Amino acid sequence: MRQDWKDRQRLLLSGRLEEIATERRRLVLQLAELDARGKAVQQDLYNLDSPISILPSDILVMIFEAGALLESSAEFHFGSLTSHVSRSWREIALATPRLWTKIECTKYTGMTFDPYSEKVRSKATAFLSRTQSSPVDIRIQEFYDYDDIQTRNFLTMLGDQVGHFYHLCIKNGGPSSLPIALEYFSRKPASTLHSLLLDTGRDYGHFELERPLFPFGAPHLTIAQLNNIATSSLHFCLPPFQHLQCLRLSGIEVDSHDFRDALMALPVLNHLELSLDDFSQDVIRFPVVLPTLRFLQVEMHRQDDLDRVIHTIHATSLTALSLSGWARNGLELNLSAEEGLESHFPSLLHLILGNITRKVPDLEVVARRFPGIERLTCQVSPKGGLFCDIDHILATIDTGSSGDSLRWPKLHTVAVSATGTPLDLYMEGELTELLCEALLYERREPFQFKSCRVKPCPRMVRPTFTSPTSPCLVGSPNTGMALQGWTLVQCSGHCECGPGWGGVLSVCPPRGSPSPSPPAPPSPSLPMLFSFAKTCVMIAWCSYVLLYERFLFGASGFSCAVLLSYLLRRLHDDGLVGPAVFDDLGSGFPHNLVLEVDTL
Prior knowledge:
Blueprint: H1 2-49, H2 57-67, H3 78-82, H4 87-94, E1 102-105, H5 118-131, E2 136-141, H6 149-159, E3 165-171, H7 177-184, E4 195-199, E5 223-227, E6 246-254, H8 258-264, E7 271-279, E8 288-289, E9 295-300, H9 305-312, E10 313-314, E11 320-324, H10 326-329, E12 350-356, H11 363-369, E13 375-380, H12 390-398, E14 413-416, H13 428-439, E15 454-456, E16 504-505, H14 525-530, E17 537-538, H15 558-573, H16 580-585, E18 593-595
Parallel strand pairs: 1-2, 2-3, 3-4, 4-5, 5-6, 6-7, 7-9, 8-10, 9-11, 11-12, 12-13, 13-14
Antiparallel strand pairs: 15-18, 16-17
Helix pairs in contact: 12-13, 13-15
């Protein structure tokens, strides 16, 4: 009897202990919930006083959209980063479609042949849902797993959104996988597609198309780059390429007439880049006539093919021609062809020579082939161009090896890249004097100056530099800066050769004054001065190794100072510049002057 009572008491007390433990756990959970709510309220209170909450939402949207234009990777996506700063930023970011328009489907290192991960698929799906109706830039890399059901479903989902694609890139996927991937994007009209890039990678060979590209139309497609495509498949690209303006064909072998037929079927093509592995002239019996083409770039990888290509293409509207390929195999333009190429390119004004050395190409042959150009750009080979500088280029311009005639009589602009070797500060003087001798080579006739300006250079490193000069000098007809009625005035040049080139150096009559014919030279040096780059010389030292001085025009301002000093010395010795110039500049020889030029 007593034992039963103890058992009942034991059960009762155990039950009460369990109730207390349960109540305690409930209170602990309530405390945790209260702590979390308190932290959230505290964060909201903090965010109200945070500087990032001061800007209105519409201003933040503009900032976010500008930031989305910066380069980003699949791992560090700008929209994803901004959406994890604060709750308000996340709400704004998720409601800004342009933050999510760059979608990259790539794989991690070592997983090239594995299916796309769930993370990649879910991220692409989420980004597409946030873009709403904004144009999408989508990049698909390393697509091989076309037998995987999840990958097929993923590509089907992407293909349903092809009408919102602005740029489509499929690369590094192998010659058999790329056409399969294209099938998913050819089931609906690509109504907003603007640019296309297809590339299997050079290690995987050429790919072939078996059906038309975008059969439902791509009316806004204007830019295309096709790498390693078989020329026999080019005709499948013609229907969506009817509005194509810019085309790059890389890593292809021209072995059939399909190459000619495809190019001539593009009615508005004006920019063409060719990087050819092989070019068989036997299959091109008729010229490739491209009447709308304005820019042509040809890069070859086999000997003698470069000459064949430029003789095959006829473009009456072509104004710029870029040639490259000789530095790799010692290739030169064919000397046996005596006729020039003016009939092929009658409108040619700008010639660009890539990867040049002192030996190739033969600039005299180039001058004979393209005698009417006005601008010449030379990119020195990084491997074989150590001793190929602007003096080598200008020597060919001034006269040929026989000294019988002037090369490129219409030439007014020269741009030359650096050799990739830093210049010693005190060796620049010798280089600049050689340059001046080449520039001042006597011409057959005087030419009109353009404008320039001299100014002190406070950063000049020179032992003879003693004190700063007077303010920037702009001459007038009543000062010693006058040159037979001409005046040195301010220069505001802009380089036409693209980013990375140097400034413009020139001289001309004062603004607002009439432009009379140049006076008769009082000494033999005046026509040499008038020949200073034949109206305008552009000197470009644009190698990255020169950036440590923060100057693109030479390794420092020293080159400019020596150049100007040399010119003024020649003017003074010939009596063309009075002593007032040196009086205004300070003591003696003006070492501490630079020409003011625009650098990019």
